[in-house]
Structure prediction request, 272 residues.
Amino acid sequence: MRNRHVTTKRFEGRVALITGAASGIGRATALRFADEGAAVAVVDRDAVGAERTAAEIATAGGHAAGFECDVSTSERVTALVAEVERALAPIDVLANVAGIGDTAGREGIEGIDDARWSLVLAVNLNGPFYLCRAVLPGMAARGHGAVVNVSSLAGRSKSANGGLAYTASKAGLLGLTRHLAFDYGQRGVRVNAICPGGVDTPMLRAGGPSAAESEADAQERRRRVAAYGWFMPIKRISAPDEQAAAIAFLASDDASYINGVSLDVNGGLYMA
Ligand SMILES: NC(=O)c1ccc[n+]([C@@H]2O[C@H](COP(=O)([O-])OP(=O)(O)OC[C@H]3O[C@@H](n4cnc5c(N)ncnc54)[C@H](O)[C@@H]3O)[C@@H](O)[C@H]2O)c1
Prediction:
């Protein structure tokens, strides 16, 4: 039985910037941080979705503001961080959740053109780099802060559903995490990552049978989902709030001695 009841207020008086917060894991993370007392900057390229999450938080009695931002755009990210700090206060927590899936190149490297490769790397790796570069100096100057990057099982192993570019982007994100954890640990800032397995979100559903383009494609997707389920020690995929709980833990003072880790939140898939 899962325990969804949150009893702690670990982020009271703190500001959390969450990217990808219009949907899926990012939305669940924004709700979780707000529930635990944070003022939340709800960031997404989907402005309407960001406002929707911020409104949900406000309705529940929390504090949030929505911000439109494409994280793959360096100048926009720099401006965003200044906007968030003006609207809320200096940022204590950064969660890089925004990301795009990718099925191009599933059959091999020849299937990936330059534009596709660059787009996946731009969102999934450059985005967190731009955000970290804009936020970390301020955290270090204040002597405290926490960053959590959302990588993937793909970053540790290879993508179950997606392509080569996705795997490379998520592996790169783990390298960024470790290097920043080393550089900033001595300045009071911790940088960690989570590696989700399958999570029930629009991104996962887009790679599933319901999004197939032909019957053969649907069959192949069904086989892959069944194989995935067969190997999972916990016989279900994760709910977004289970990922949010891990992000909140790593960002909280409960994890004050945890730095540079890649936490697998995958139901024990590695034991399969
Ligand atoms: N769902 C899974 O099974 C799974 C597994 C492992 C890792 N992940 C990772 O978790 C993260 C969240 O994925 P999700 O499943 O919640 O997907 P999702 O599609 O539900 O949400 C992703 C959000 O990111 C936003 N986004 C995409 N590109 C952006 C950009 N350039 N700038 C700003 N926002 C952008 C989208 O608008 C969307 O709101 C991603 O980084 C993904 O790679 C997901």
